[in-house]
Write a structure and sequence with these properties.
It comes from Advenella mandrilli. This is Asparaginase. The protein folds into 2 domains: about 5-190, L-asparaginase, N-terminal domain (Rossmann fold), CATH 3.40.50; about 210-325, Rossmann fold (3-Layer(aba) Sandwich), CATH 3.40.50. The chain has helices at about 30-35, 40-45, 60-75, 90-100, 125-135, 220-230, 245-255, 285-290, 300-310, 315-325; strands at about 5-10, 15-20, 25, 45-55, 80-85, 110, 145-150, 155, 160, 170, 180-185, 185-190, 210-215, 235-240, 260-265, 295. The protein is built from 10 helices and 16 strands. The chain is α/β, with parallel strands linked by helices and about 325 residues long. It starts with a strand and ends with a helix.
């Protein structure tokens, strides 16, 4: 049988980093050099290799991700059975969710990286890339949208989170668990993936969403200042517990919700916002009665990306609420 064609695009990150004369590691390796470090990878698929950027993941911006999206779509149009993007792990979960909002193809789009640079003892990049090729080649990966492959685990973009700063098992899907694994180069899935409706790729992406983590005894004036200068067209609050804020913060958010979309998520590492449990001022019943939307199962970082994508597509409040019901649902 002929091998499937898999496209690999390199963005940079730890997986591409080698020692710098000035100390530490920096991104130097491109897609071709990465593939050359993986024994047996050429036997698995016909590879199309492209170096897109050489960036630390904290420097990735929306324009880079839209460029990745355009490149990946062209590769699919040219016959790629799957596409892999290598990048740094610090923002990997955000990139994956962002791309999942727009990825309309049945072919899998796989994101991966490494927790250890290629020159470090126990470097994990080669194994992660080999596993990613296996996932991209698998027919069982079709119509699952964007997946993250790290440490032989397969995660859905909507649920994956980086939960440790340095360990090789830094990625988990804490609420719903991994969707599958790679074992002996074989891909095994545990459940179907429920795909959500993709958004159109916007003509521009200038509208901004403020993400603010609420903390005890903090000052809501920062929200007021941001909104007074019209610097942001939406707000996401990482709130207490199941989606709560202090009364002073509540007053600011309620006033803002009359003009722009305001979302409250949970700042905890797992769990959904509630809808009808707490009734005090600043709790979810009061907030929803005053026009504030709840992020449900979405973490604040991903809710920010969803809200931004909705604003770029000129969605109104009801359309944003519908998107939250779809992307923030438990399934």
């Amino acid at each position: 049988m002929s091998k499937k064609r898999i496209a690999i695009g390199a963005l940079g990150g730890t997986i591409s980093m080698t020692a710098s004369p000035s100390g530490g590691v920096t991104a130097t390796l491109g897609a071709r050099e990465l593939a050359q470090t993986v024994p047996g990878i050429a036997n698995m698929a016909e590879l199309s290799l492209q170096t897109l950027e050489k960036l630390p993941s904290g420097s990735i911006r929306f324009e880079h991700l839209f460029n990745c999206l355009a490149w990946a779509e062209k590769e699919v149009e040219k016959g790629a059975a799957g596409v892999i993007i290598t990048q740094g792990t610090d923002t990997l979960e955000e990139s994956a969710f962002f791309l999942d909002l727009f990825w309309r193809h049945t072919q899998p789009l796989v994101l991966m990286g490494a927790m250890r640079s290629p020159e470090a003892p126990g470097a994990d990049g080669a194994a992660n890339l080999l596993a990613s090729v296996a996932v991209a080649c698998s027919q069982a990966s079709a119509n699952r949208g964007v997946l993250v492959v790290m440490n032989d685990d397969i995660h859905e973009a909507r649920h994956v989170r980086k939960v440790h700063s340095t360990r090789v098992n830094a990625f988990e899907s804490p609420v719903f668990g991994v969707v599958g694994v790679v074992l002996e180069n074989r891909v095994q899935y545990f459940r179907p993936t429920v795909r959500k409706p993709q958004l159109p790729i916007p003509a521009s992406f200038n509208k901004k969403v403020l993400l603010f983590e609420h903390a005890i005894s903090d000052d809501p004036d920062i929200i007021l200042l941001a909104l007074e200068h019209a610097a942001y067209q939406g707000v996401v609050i990482a709130g207490f517990g199941s989606g709560h804020v202090s009364e002073p913060m509540r007053n600011v958010l309620v006033a803002a919700a009359g003009r722009i979309p305001v979302l409250v998520c949970s700042r905890t590492a797992a769990g959904s916002t509630t809808n009808a449990v707490y009734g005090y001022k600043g709790a979810e019943i009061d907030l929803q009665q005053n026009g504030v939307l709840m992020g449900q199962w979405l973490c604040p970082r991903k809710a920010r990306l969803l809200l931004a994508a909705a604003l770029w597509n000129d969605c109104n409040r009801e359309q944003i609420k519908e998107l939250l019901g779809q992307w923030g649902a438990s399934q």
